[in-house]
Amino acid sequence: MRLQVTLAPQHGSITEVMPNYNHFLQSAIYANLSPALANYLHTRGFRHGERAFKLFTFSRLMGKRLKGLDNGKLVFEGKLNLVISSPIDEFISDLGFNLLCNGKLKLGTIDLAIEGIEARQEEIKGKELIVHTLSPVVTCSTLIKPGGGKYTCYYQPGEGEFLQQITMNLLKKYYLWQGDVINPKEANLEIKAMGPSRQIITTFKGIIIKGYMCRLRIKGPINLLHLAIDAGLGAKNSMGFGCLEVERNWR
Questions:
Q1: Which residue segment(s) compose the domain that 223 sits in?
Q2: Fewer beta carbons within 10 angstroms: which end of the chain, N or C?
Q3: Low-confidence ranges of the chain (pLDDT < 50)
Q4: Cα(154)–Cα(148) distance, integer angstroms
Q5: Which residues are marked as site: Transition state stabilizer (predicted)?
Q6: Which of 21, 23, 40, 42 is catalytic?
């Protein structure tokens, strides 16, 4: 399930935001959830070993971009669109209700008026679809340097490790959501990059994160495809990564 939120500047027609605004969007989402739900997701989430999954994702801000300012800010003219997605119905209904009641979304020091909210479920009819990213897909591993110390290795669409990381991540989410274990070999998940990918480097609370904007052809069981669309593809979804949009009439 997803919300498509239409936003607008409260004064004038211009919105200026810092390039690394993911943290502000994440904070705005938590601020518009009921306290109990926000606290559960923020402090605990759905646990898988030492990892915590929040099972929601969101897009980048989408709108008419103007030339950036000398101070590095991004400049948008007119209305903005934001997609927030999750398989948790309570999350979507609670967030949508509170956003409508509040009438605005606080993005750092900026207040954006909420002009409309549309709730919808992406319809998936078969075991194959083409998607494009609304926020970068992140896949990575923490590796050990020969001399000791850790570093993060990021993978791009087309690499074998990219598919492996995507598959294992999605199966963990499926187990947390449905309680069912699927053997990776039985998942039969296929992901193929459609055209070039564009690397996006983002800073989130001082941490550098590398992801890719791309089009992907995904084949697999319908239940896994639904979860990828709802919860996000890859890692760090609740930080604003891996949000997807299904392309219609692609055959």
A1: 128-246
A2: C
A3: none
A4: 19
A5: 54
A6: 42
